Amino acid sequence: MAASDMFNLEGRVALVTGASSGLGRAAASCLVRAGARVVGLARRAEALDRWRTEAGGETAAVTADLASDADLAAIAARACAPFGPPDILVNAAGLNLRQPADQVTRDGWERTIALNLTVPFFLAQALVPAMREKRWGRIVNFASLQSRRAFANGIAYGASKGGVEQMTRAMAEAWSAAGINANALAPGFFHTELTGPVFADPAVAARHAAATCIGRNGEMQDIEGPLLFLASEASAYVTGQVLFVDGGYTAK
After folding, report:
1. What is the 3-state secondary structure (H, E, C) of 194-231?
2. Is the pLDDT of residue 126 over 80?
């Protein structure tokens, strides 16, 4: 197989959660450029419309608030309507309330676990039957530095992302024999809405940049190559893995 064919997603359908902003938006646009027909899923319709205008290609939008007590089977069915069942699922939607451990509320904890951990599993579960019929599927979850590292005010978020790492391995064990590979990306510090409080303080942002081996924080294009690898034929023999896209933050 030619190298260009390994990463070609023409004929594939992708569903990307959190596609209205940040890394989810970057992921959705990357898959469009690789030739996939992409359904963006997020709660903000206007932001999704802006993404579709900028991304070009064949795209569709599904508006839903995944952080609520959502009917994920119904949402999955809506996501299948524009182009058929997705071959690729990218679980990029996330929530980090940044509550100190002594101030974590039951509501905040449950909302964080629901969006970061529960939603990715049950959305995948709803889409797996169609992937199994095709004997081909790619699930790309978003883990985090906090899957392995503890940061201040991140106990709920860290618990959820630690769960994502183990869930990814368990998804691989459950479904990869049917041709459905499950892996995760673990981004370092990228300037997004989710990390806004970090980048609001230049000294804190600089400290995180200095903690990497490369010497800078992530830029949106840095996620594209790793994502395309895990979403394409190039990763045919890779499953149950977490790829840290962190400039070497976890290597130091």
Report:
1. CCHHHHCCHHHHHHHHHCCCCCCCECHHHHHHHHHHHH
2. yes
pLDDT in tens, 151-169: 999 999 999 999 999 999 9
Does 249 participate in catalysis according to the annotation?
no
Enter the pTM of the model. Answer: 0.96
Cα radius of gyration (the chain):
17
Tell me the C-alpha to C-alpha distance, in Å, between residue 84 and each of 13, 32, 156, 194: 7, 16, 35, 31
What is the C-alpha to C-alpha distance for residues 179 and 137, in angstroms, rounded to an integer?
6
At 19 the three-state DSSP class reads coil
Q: Which residue type, as a one-letter code, is found at position 24? A: G
Domains of the chain: 3-189+226-245 (3.40.50.720)
Catalytic site residue from 83, 121, 142, 157: 157
β partners of residue 138: 88, 181
Q: What are 40's strand-pairing partners? A: 16, 61
Burial of 215 (0-12, 13-18, 19+ CB in 10 A): exposed
